[in-house]
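Appendix B. Extra example for self-study. Work through it before the problem class; the solution is given directly after the inputs so you can check yourself.
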Amino acid sequence: MKFPVQTSPHVEATSSVSDLMTTVLWALVPGTVVAVWLLGWGVLFNVMLAVGAAWLAEALMLWLRARPFRPALTDRSVLITGWILALCLPNLAPWWLPVVGAVFAVVVAKQLYGGIGYNLFNPAMVGYVVLLVSFPEAMTRWGAPIDGGAASLSLTQAAQWTFLGVLPAATGFDALSQATPLDQWRMLVTHGGEIRGVAASVWQGGGWSLWLNLAFLAGGAWMFYRGAIRWHIPVAMIAGVLLMSGLLWGIDPARFAGPMFHLLAGGVIFGALFVATDPVSASTTPRGRLVFGFGIGVLAVLIRSFGNYPDGVAFAILLMNLAVPLIDYYTQPPVFGRKPGHATESVTQSRGES
Amino acid sequence: MPEARATVSEGLHGFHGGLLLDEHKAPACDRPVCDIPLVEEYVLPLHMHIGAPAIPVVAEGDRVRRGQLLARPDDFISAGIHAPTSGVILAIEPRALPHPGGLSAQSIVLKADGRDEACEPLDPWPDYHDKSPVEIRSRLREAGIVGLGGAVFPTAVKLATANPGGVETLVLNGAECEPYISCDDRLMQEEPLAILRGAQVILHAVSASRCLIGIEDNKPRAVAALQEAIDRLAAEEGEARFEIKVVPTIYPAGGEKQLIRTLTGIEIPRGRHLTDYQMLCLNVGTAASSWRAVVDGRALTERIVTVAGGGVHASQNLRVRIGTPVAKVIEAAGGYTPGVDRLLMGGPMMGFALHEDEVPVVKATNCLLALRPVDREPPPTPQPCIRCSRCSEACPADLLPQQLYWYARAQQFDRSHDYHLFDCIECGVCSAVCPSHIPLVQYFRHAKTEIWSQEREKVKAEHARRRFEFHNERIERQKAEREAALAKKRAAIQAAQEKKAKQAAAGESEAASADGEKEKSAAGMSIEAARARAKARKAQAQDPAKAQDRRQASPELGDDAGPSGTPPEGDAPDDRPQDDRPGGAS
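Solution. Structure tokens for the complete assembly:
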């Protein structure tokens, strides 16, 4: 009897990319639900628009590149790109903002680099930064959370605003919008003022960000439990944020915000769990991941404190993406039998015994 | 799957990575080992061990009996081959091998006569204690004993490498970590004493002071049986050198280096031998057959083979004579079930697929695994690597398969080398965990092969370069010598001419006698020239001697300059005395 020949191993696959991506998608759900509850329907529109645009852009690019549709469109990675980008956008953004960002992210940052696995930079962050640089005004359309803010708009009102730019008669845009804590802090820093009040507002008026971060943490715990992410990057990144901000705060508390403010404001928790852990653009060695995460944390605080943009997480991630090949090269774990000191010690030991 | 687990020993060291697999050990591991009926024809490849192929000592038409030597070991690293039953040598010709490439090789074909007469055994040494290590080694060599865990390295050679430094610890490998395989499990359950006796022989041969037996905790009955036998030996003979170490079931716990790491915490780097660390590692089956060879004088003519998988009707362990066609073994296990589409030799992780079942069982055959599509999913199409690094987290050699893959794909083999490609033991864990379903092991095998052939090319080119340089040098030298001779000749002529001119100036009056002088000087010149030639010849006669030296030196130079720190040393599969293969060794 004759048989077809395959090479070893001959066991079934234990996991797949789409399983991995599905875990991440589920992990995004609690954060998104809380964001919709706190920040209004605009968040949901952002997600739907960005995900849809990303998916279509991926399909279009696959067609142009003459690549098979099935694997790339069913691995669900492009949905994550769109979704993550959407969660970074202001809740009162016009409809074209998520669309432009998602298309740029998928077409330029992902497909032009060769599709999944080949992108040097995190596509969602590239899309976000492009929007931030190109449309600074639209990117500041943050509606205030909960009471009286964007969440008070009904589904129809929110849709009218997103797609037509029309608000209910009695409501002005200024009534809805509010500078984010990071923006407020930046204003104070640049115009001189008391920093303590802003830090306190995170806990009082801005207590919402705590809920949002807890929801993201729940998602992160799920990903960790399912093995979709490892602990190294989030832990190292948060450590980097706390250490760097603590250091600056210790030097001059009047000029720099405290560690807790940095941790809870902006995208630190979200970025640490969902963005920096993107395997393709992150470091792959255990020590490398610690360096990578820590670097992002430090850079994010530095950019927030000294840079021109209120939040530095996206820039920090992109900068560290750039450093990944170098980090990976210098953090290779020692291979079996070549751990420093290990083998030689054993030799002398066993020789000594015998 | 047996529910009960043996208690894992304390103080183990473990190893990095590894993989929990579905074990599929039952039902074969629950059923006693059966003999299979004689078949008509046995095929014995001359090369079924590591090292040089054996040399036939029988001819076509010879009558042979069971246990008779058919082919003698050729080189230091080689092993003899013996008749599995009595019969007539039908042919010595190329036959299909159980080989991943489907190769054929010179084999002895034995037609059984059905009488199964045994030949005179080798001199039995029930009391082997007065035999020297050398005598025991030559007995193992004579009896064709090789590592039965899958690496088939001649056991005598393995013991010989131990002598200079001495051995303190003998490790018996009974981990058997590959799914489905249970031949060692059954052996430990049924013949624990044979294993221990064999280990005693080896302990004597290498004067080791203790023996650790590593067994995975999914074999509680094997652990119990061996423990009972150890207790009995301790009670009856005061034997206290044995100790069972129960290790956690995690693939590839049975890889030699992984097992040593688990038991002792010592990592053996690539290129080093276990004996550098005063250790020796043998498969339990090898120990048992060593005992039979030394104490009973019986050569290695059979082994236990696990026949398993959904592709056969009755999964079980069979005692199979070496050379039995695989098809007959499958028949003995109830035959194929409908839908079988893959036949493996070895386990699912490291075994290779057979092209056909008309190949013989060889000394390395620990398992025949017949699979149907329902036993495994169809291979999914590979997707791009997403650098999730599950492979490096699971790699028992602490490598970065994702980087190796990158360089192997880009054909940057020198970079693969930097990332320690040759430390890869091809255990298959990376491929099994890859969510992108990339056949990583296949890439690594390919890269290794490419590097080996590049190295060979490099060595060849280096030889060619040296040859060419030597050739040029010789041409140059000859030219120089010729010129020197010519210069001498010219000088001689000039001298003669000057002399003549002087003479001419001295006495024109003696012009009459000038003709005579001229002849004389011409004669002198030819004598000078002859002398010069002779000198040149002498010089040349000395030089070839030098040249000879250089020629002898050149291959050495070539070897030195060749693969500085690259494959051939420990990588060529042919000269590694250690059983690195986790699958089999298990």
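Self-check: Residues 440-506 of chain B form the longest helix (67 residues). If your reasoning did not lead you there, revisit section 3.
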